[in-house]
Amino acid sequence: MENVYTNNAGQTFIILQKEGKKCLIKFLQTGYVRSALYDNLIVGKVRDLYAVASYGIGYDGEFKKVHYWKQAKQLWRNMLKRCYCEKDQKGYFGKCEVDVRWHCFANFLEDLPSLKNFDLWLKGQNTNSVKYNLDKDLICKGNTTYSRDLCCFITEYENKSEGAKNGKPFTKKAKMG
What we know:
This protein has helices at about 40, 70-85, 105-110, 120-125, 155-165; strands at about 5, 10-20, 20-25, 35, 95-100, 130-135, 145, 150-155. By secondary structure, it is of the alpha+beta class. Strand 2 (about 10-20) and strand 3 form a beta hairpin. It is elongated, with a radius of gyration of 20 Å.
């Protein structure tokens, strides 16, 4: 029988293969197989990228770290929070959902550049220009699902104006560059 190990996040895995300091491991909960350095394994640093870790539904998956990945990760986590965190006062808990494809951050990151106004959102992340928000309502009024087919980026001002029309409070006027 193989030895079962546990990382710092409580995820269990087995070592499938070991050559020098390089190991091939398999996480027992998800079946995810990855390589890792033995030194990182013994201190518990290697984690399962397919284990649910964000708001009971989201997981990272495997992705290349493009220059905007941190901003995209924050956007993704905020989207999940709005839909799946009961304590989020401004959210849509129980009213909206995230498409299953976007439960995986790697898929979300891959799809972002195809969304309308992505380039403007990205520009707004790196400068003092107009800020853009991810929107699920403009393409299809009354939509309750965040997905690559039904989302786009709109200005923060437009987003707050639309929210006011739909009965959501218009809290503050966005700076228009």
